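Quick board copy: two proteins, each given as sequence then tokens.
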Amino acid sequence: MTYEVIIPAAGQGKRMGLGKNKLFLELDRLPVFIHTLIVFENDPNCNGIWLVVSSDDKKEMNELVKKYAITKVIALIEGGTERQHSVYHAVKELSDDTIVLVHDAARPFIQTEQIARLTKVAVESGAAVLAVPIKDTIKKVDGDLVVETVERSSLWAIQTPQAFRVSILKEAHEKAIVDTYIGTDDASLVERLGQAVQIVEGNYDNIKLTTPEDLYFAEAIVAKRKENIADSNK
């Protein structure tokens, strides 16, 4: 199942506390966003990458794309004021009958097996998201007081990629523009159309690098994957 992917990379990464785009941080000697691009570069089902960037970062990101021989980047598109607007800048460039994935540049540990399962479901249903079951106890609070303990059996933590038929995602974004609605993710915009969004179980390694603490987990995942490769080569 072939697809194209939009990778928003225009955020400021303020929670990382760096004073620069966190995607330039090096992880195992490569910038974070290059790790992410390499996954799609090496996936034979990926027909192209739309990288959405800020005007300040565009030159440096373009240079790094060339340096690391990422050949599937169709264009570097300048982002908008919100992530949602950035995604739409790319969505409107796509053909309506295409399957498009939207994936956070700061999730470098996505795997092609998960992408393949997600894409297959999106082809069948029109909209699908990767997610993992919530493991922690979740409590609803008011101020600093617990109001209730939420039943977690039906709660999932949503990840990316999220996959859609382009015609559906375009309609969802255009309705959001008319309604001046800002959603938490692309799936939330699609849900407003009454379109069912299918859950595809993902992997707990598919973390988003948001705060400095996440880098410790990222380094552990890198080490674990290297160890698994070494064991498989014995």
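And the next:
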Amino acid sequence: MNVNIHPSWKQQLTEEFDKDYFKTLTSFVNEEYTSHTCYPKGNHIFNAFNYCPFEDVKVVILGQDPYHGVGQANGLCFSVNDHIAMPPSLINIFKEIETDVGIPFPQTGNLERWASQGILLLNATLTVRAHEAGSHQRKGWETFTDAVISSLSRKRTNIIFLLWGGYAKKKGAKIDTSKHHVLTSGHPSPLSANRGYWFGNKHFSKTNELLQSFGEREIAW
């Protein structure tokens, strides 16, 4: 695995790359990508960091696992490549945006446009074997992404963390809520959304209100 990560993140995470767990993780990922079809593409594994340098992070959205279908994952949580059908959770995200801030449903589910505005679209696990959800969990990625969250929490202020669903809320234990802002709701998956735990959370307008209060540019969702 080639750690082709933005220099600002390399500076923050150098100690992690030198730890034994990360070396073991690297060996595992290399073997998986050699022996199986895995997603995202090898040069997209660290896309979340490369689109959003450390000092530019304004918002963090936490996902769990990359999509495991053909051509879907592009290294940004909840995002799919252009010309790929939108998964149900992403459809529900766009439905809430349309209701909340009046932005029409987009033609693509590619969220690179969010990442380039300062949104770190971070999955807890950065790789997956094709058609095997969760296949790369508990191999070391979670430790690495915990370190990412901890670094942001310690060294930055006024980041808005959007934690959707139980898994993301547990992952948020690393956040210093005296320095940062945490918005929580149910997950946008149909199971949660249809029970009333997602729609109406207004996280997108609330995020922009907070950014405005910090003197930061609002997100064009």
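Board note added afterward: The radius of gyration is 17 Å.
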